[in-house]
Amino acid sequence: MVKTEREYARDIVEVGKLVFQKGWVAANDGNISIRLDDERIMCTPTGVSKGMMSVDDIIVVDYEGNKVSGRLERTSEIMMHLTIYNVRPDIDSVVHAHPPTATGFAAAGRALDTALLPEVIIGLGCVPLAGYGLPGTDALTEPMLPLIPKYDALLLGNHGAVSYGKDVMQAYFRMETVEHFARINFVAEMLGGAKALPRLEVDKLFESRGRYGVASNATAVPGCPVTAEDVGPAAAAADGNGQDGFFVTREELIRLVEEATRARGV
User: What are the CA-CA distances from residue 185 to residues 112, 128, 207, 236 (Å)?
Assistant: First the structure.
């Protein structure tokens, strides 16, 4: 059944609360939208915490970004949402937030592109990084344009992340996957290095999407996701912890330093 506009507004309010409760936004950060039809987009307003919105706060804009209805004003970042809707006619909802770990990767200039988790490969393929652009301007969307058709979630350089789907819950869940993946990736690196899956296994995971009822634009393209073969010979020579195969204990290190010092006559 087709939802009423008020029901769609309630969905946005509910997702806003989830995003806020998870700590993916602070103050008035982030924005959420739903495509109503070929002429209108429903979205969160500017200047309101996503965890404290009411149904009456939600506004409607046209495809030029002009407000059609609502008592509050639109966010300047609505143009990012409109760009995604224009490029992806299969998408009906967009969520933009600043989940801390994923945003940390974006601020470090790093994509979430390593083939680590089967669920991420099946659901998203990988999460590439779009270069930085000034929020609220065309400079924000320009680096995104070549990536939007191929992927269902992106990191935004020094900014945050955006995900999109057939409905607002799918867009939200994709953002949840992005942040979950970022946290696991970070922990793996702290433990000595994330080990990518081989290309053969990645191809099998992409082929298995049909069994799981997953529809996604993401495909296995060179470098995204990065597989064990893509990492290169240096990684192949690494040991099981992803580190170079040379280790010494503290006592051995002290002894080596002492021997080197004596040899130099110090």
Answer: 8, 14, 24, 19
